[in-house]
Design a protein that fits this description.
This is Long-chain fatty acid--CoA ligase. It holds the Pfam family AMP-binding. The chain has about 525 residues and is an alpha/beta fold. Among the domains are: about 355-425, Luciferase, domain 3, CATH 2.30.38.10; about 430-525, ANL, C-terminal domain (GMP Synthetase, Chain A, domain 3, 2-Layer Sandwich). The chain has helices at about 15-20, 40-60, 75-85, 100-110, 120-130, 150-155, 190-200, 230-235, 250-255, 265-280, 300-305, 340-345, 440-445, 480-490, 520-525; strands spanning about 25-30, 35-40, 65-70, 90-95, 110-115, 135-140, 170-175, 185-190, 215, 240-245, 260-265, 290, 310-315, 325, 350, 355-360, 380-385, 405-415, 420-425, 430, 435, 450-460, 465-475, 500-505. The strands form 5 sheets. The chain has a 9-stranded mixed sheet with strand order 2-1-10-9-11-12-13-14-15, with helices on both faces. Strands 6-5-3-4-7-8 form a 6-stranded mixed sheet, sandwiched between helices. Helix 10 (about 265-280) links the parallel strand 11 (about 260-265) and strand 12 (about 290). The protein is globular and about 70 Å long. The structure holds adenosine-5'-diphosphate. Adenosine-5'-diphosphate binds near residues 323 and 515.
């Protein structure tokens, strides 16, 4: 027997229909690279997205074709999110910071047929065009110098069209992970997975995005389903603010002038924001919610945000989990917790959201489930309706639901269910048969006021297999010595975790998504000799 409720396919176009019907005037503001500001609203985005549906159909771009974007955050890009998916096509957001070989690989692997790009990325297009034979049409978002301009292209249409309809399991979006080893891998989201992810995201226990919210996604639109923010804003008709420049001065001004309530960004966004506030003496704008993810946010940053009255929502997830899987929702005892306890909890990776389950299994490949005791570390696995089943192009062996996805992260889970990431499986430092968490070493180091950034890597050791070396970027003008920093760390981490050496460097390499690249760092330190 089946339930007898209506079949209503969950498609992302319905989210935009809601926004345009309930909050047609709610604005989408773009701060462009040249400093100019433009405003449209949800009614305008829907009209333009429908015109884009017509323009795609006119080009013969049929449903399920891949349409790529190579663009920063702006309202035209948002239109393309809904135009492409509304035509039943698959939106492939490309990270312009990838290397040429990766750009070559993903466009050909996705078989992209159309590319919409920012004029700023014309050099990439010129360089890569001959290596991208599948692309039939190039459209530029903001110039008509080399190909049709977006506004002219959709300007020929009247918007009297309908969204593509069909099974909610049909794909709507494709994102490639940066692939620290091997080629990038494609994650193909379905309409259904994105709508379900959206419904959880906007809930009070998650981000509490609501019709009166104003959201500034600093996270780039090509990163991990853009953390689900465009879908969540459409589902509530929230106001959106985009900035093409991530200068903290501009971001602060936008937060204040546009009355931003929610900001989503990686920890470096918060670092540079506070650095800017310290330098200028300006106060933290009155935002309500700070969504932080992508890498661990240090307790010092959490504390400062909380002292500014901000609800810190650290989330853990990955491209493969749409991305939100856990978040620091407040438990019932929240109001009786001390401020220090609250900061400590908000500095964790939080607890599973309804619709996403996590567990840890033994690191030794036996697959034995590890206890949730807050100290046993294990390989983190996740499952749920917005977790990946297979990578794009991989054979689907239809094992059905209920399988666990290996995240490549290492974590502990407390009896209450609080997740703490201790490492990536590739980055754990194995010393004398025990595991040292590089992440905990780094977190302890960056809580020193003179440390701007820190990364711990394992280097070979004849007796202990590996020992940690801490690579540190000091605050400009600081004379912090290795001995002082080690003294600061002792008492904060176990004695045998203390790094064998501290190396001060000018900068630490980052990946295309702005995370510390341990792979590059290990290469730089491949000949490193520990002090005797
Ligand atoms: P990429 O792998 O391309 O950098 P992802 O966004 O998919 O992009 O990266 C996911 C990884 O980022 C996670 O597996 C985890 O290691 C890390 N990560 C995400 N959120 C957090 C967080 N809140 N704290 C610590 N690490 C995080």
């Amino acid at each position: 027997m089946l339930g007898m409720m209506q079949d209503w396919e969950m498609r992302v176009s319905a989210l935009l229909d809601f926004a345009a019907s309930e909050q047609p005037e709610r604005e989408i503001v773009t701060h462009w690279a040249d400093g100019s500001l433009t405003r449209t609203n949800w009614r305008g985005i829907r009209h333009d997205a429908l015109r884009m549906v017509q323009a795609l159909r006119r080009l013969g771009i049929y449903p399920e074709s891949r349409v790529a974007t190579l663009a920063m955050n702006h309202a035209h890009h948002l239109t393309a999110w809904f135009g492409v998916t509304g035509a039943g096509c698959v939106l492939h957001t490309i990270n312009p910071r990838l290397f040429d070989d990766q750009l070559d690989f993903i466009v050909n692997h996705a078989r992209d047929r159309v590319l919409l790009y920012d004029a700023a990325f014309q050099p990439i297009v010129d360089r890569m065009k001959s290596r991208w034979p599948t692309i039939e049409h190039f459209i530029c978002f903001d110039s008509d110098e080399h190909c049709p301009a977006f506004e002219d292209w959709i300007g020929a249409e009247d918007g009297k069209a309908f969204w593509s309809t069909g099974d909610e399991h049909q794909p709507c979006m494709l994102c490639y992970t940066s692939g620290t080893t091997g080629n990038p891998k494609g994650v193909l989201y379905s309409n259904r997975s994105n709508v379900l992810h959206t419904l959880t995201m906007i809930a009070p226990a998650c981000l509490a995005i609501e019709p009166r919210s104003c959201v500034l996604p600093v996270v780039p639109m090509f990163h991990a389903n853009n953390w689900g923010l465009p879908w969540a804003c459409a589902a509530t008709g929230a106001k959106m603010v985009y900035s093409q420049v991530n200068d903290p001065d501009v971001l602060c001004r936008l937060m204040r002038e546009e009355q931003v309530s929610h900001v989503g960004g990686v920890p470096t966004v918060w670092f540079s924001l506070f650095q800017h506030l310290d330098e200028t003496g300006v106060e933290l704008p009155p935002i309500r919610v700070a969504l932080s993810g992508g890498s661990a946010v240090p307790a010092s940053v959490v504390e400062r945000l909380m002292r500014g009255g901000v609800r810190v929502m650290q989330a853990w997830g990955m491209t493969e989990t749409s991305p939100i899987a856990t978040v620091t929702w407040e438990p019932p005892e929240w109001d009786t917790m001390t401020f220090e306890e609250q900061v400590a909890y908000k500095s964790s990776q939080g607890r599973q959201v309804c619709g996403s389950q996590v567990r840890i299994v033994s690191l030794d490949d036996s697959g034995v489930e590890m206890p949730h005791d807050g100290t046993s570390a294990g390989a983190l696995q996740v499952r749920g309706p917005w977790t990946i089943r297979r990578y794009f192009g991989e054979k689907d062996d239809a094992t059905g639901s209920g399988q666990w996805f290996d995240t490549g992260d290492v974590a502990t889970i407390s009896p209450a269910g609080v997740l703490r990431l201790t490492d990536r499986t590739k980055d754990v430092i194995k010393s004398g048969g025990e595991w040292i968490s590089s992440v905990e070493l780094e977190n302890a180091a960056v809580s020193h006021p003179d440390v701007l950034e820190a990364a711990a890597i394992g280097v070979p050791h004849p007796r202990w297999t590996e020992r940690p070396v801490l690579v540190v970027v000091r605050r400009p003008g600081s004379a912090l010595s290795p001995e002082e920093l080690l003294g600061f760390l002792s008492g904060r981490v176990a004695r045998w975790w203390l790094p064998d050496a501290v190396e001060f460097v000018r900068s630490i390499p980052h990946t295309g998504t702005g995370k510390i690249s341990k792979k590059d760092l290990r290469e730089i330190f491949c000949d490193y000799r520990l002090p005797a």
